[in-house]
């Protein structure tokens, strides 16, 4: 598959999808990443088309399957016709959306929703954060969907074993992590057990934040976004449409080095780890390695 060379004005932010089955923690994850609820309290994402969230203050709108758009009332999103809607576009101002877009997918196994509702949004995706519930981690239905994911997306995706606090003893925790790591070998760029709710509740308690598992995950995510930023500067195509990362044109000589994404040292917050853009020359730039990566 050929890759279109981007023009100087074609730079776009990486697009990261939040995916998984129902009750796996996607809504809690989006809350953690953005430091706020992207949807009103009474609105759930379970019966919505994919919600594409970008930085900004624009009014929300829906995109029909034929590409037409119309304004929507954010308080009445659940009234939007799912089968006829490609995605819902929301705009918020928060740190993570300054460096990437997030696409919140509905649960993959809803018997009342056609898979086409979320499958048609996959071509917009560069990477995925996949949530799998610790007590029934990595079900066959999840593996079946992931088997069809292009390798270029897999390499930059992350698997979260969520609600890890529901496993009450160390033996069960080790068993689940080992099994999931074995069954997904080579299919994700990183695997992290985490309690997202504990991370949100940590407040200013840094130790509690680290114990929740969110510390290693968010450090890894910064690394992933940095890599994706460099890749998306070199192609207009989302990585879902790229057969291999080797198909993406290499930077030509004398081009400006990709901007570097780095945690602000004075803005590490347990409830939401802020990011900022730094130049590669920043001597303080360093990215923590994840505690567990798939081999």
Short description:
The chain has 295 residues and is of the alpha/beta class. The chain has helices at residues 26-34, 116-119, 140-147, 151-154, 170-183, 196-201, 206-211, 214-232; strands at 15-20, 51-55, 61-64, 69-71, 85-92, 101-104, 127-133, 158-162, 190-193, 260-262, 268-269, 272-273, 276-278. It contains 8 helices and 13 strands.
What does this structure look like?
- The protein is of the alpha/beta class.
- The chain has a single domain, classed as Rossmann fold.
- It has 8 helices and 13 strands.
- The longest helix is centred in the C-terminal third of the chain and has 19 residues.
- The two termini are 27 Å apart.
- The N terminus and C terminus are likely disordered.
- InterPro entries: Dynamin_N (IPR045063), P-loop_NTPase (IPR027417).
- This is Dynamin family protein.
Features:
single chain, 295 residues, alpha/beta, Rossmann fold, two-stranded antiparallel ribbon, 24% helix, 19% strand, globular, disordered C terminus, Dynamin family protein, Dynamin_N, P-loop_NTPase
**Can you summarize the main beta sheet?**
9 strands, mixed
Head-to-tail CA distance between termini: 27 Å
In the sheet with the most strands, the strands line up as 4-3-5-2-6-1-7-8-9
Per CATH, the class reads: Alpha Beta
């Amino acid at each position: 598959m050929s890759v279109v060379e981007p023009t100087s004005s074609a730079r776009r932010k990486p697009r990261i999808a939040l995916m998984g089955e129902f009750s796996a923690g996607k809504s809690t994850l989006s809350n953690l990443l953005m430091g706020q609820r992207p949807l009103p309290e009474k609105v759930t994402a379970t019966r919505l088309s994919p919600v594409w969230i970008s930085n900004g203050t624009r009014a929300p709108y829906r995109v029909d399957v034929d590409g037409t758009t119309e304004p929507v009332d954010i308080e009445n999103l659940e009234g939007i016709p799912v089968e006829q809607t490609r995605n819902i576009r929301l705009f918020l101002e928060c740190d993570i959306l300054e460096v990437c877009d997030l696409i919140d997918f509905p649960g993959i196994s809803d018997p009342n929703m056609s898979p086409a509702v979320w499958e048609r949004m996959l071509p917009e995706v560069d990477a995925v954060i996949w949530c799998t519930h610790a007590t029934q981690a990595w079900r066959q239905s999840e593996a079946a969907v992931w088997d069809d994911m292009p390798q270029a997306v897999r390499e930059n995706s992350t698997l979260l074993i969520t609600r890890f606090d529901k496993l009450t003893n160390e033996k069960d925790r080790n068993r689940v992590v080992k099994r999931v790591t074995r069954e997904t070998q080579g299919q994700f760029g990183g695997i992290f057990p985490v309690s997202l709710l504990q991370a949100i509740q940590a407040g200013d308690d840094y130790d509690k934040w680290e114990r929740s598992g969110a510390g290693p995950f968010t450090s890894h995510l910064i690394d992933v976004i940095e890599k994706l930023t460099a890749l998306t500067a070199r192609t207009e195509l989302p990585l879902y449409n790229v057969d291999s990362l080797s198909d993406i044109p290499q930077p030509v000589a004398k081009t400006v080095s990709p901007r570097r994404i780095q945690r602000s040292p004075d803005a590490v917050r347990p409830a939401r780890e802020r990011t900022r853009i730094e130049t590669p020359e920043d001597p303080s730039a360093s990215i923590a390695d994840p505690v567990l990566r798939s081999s």
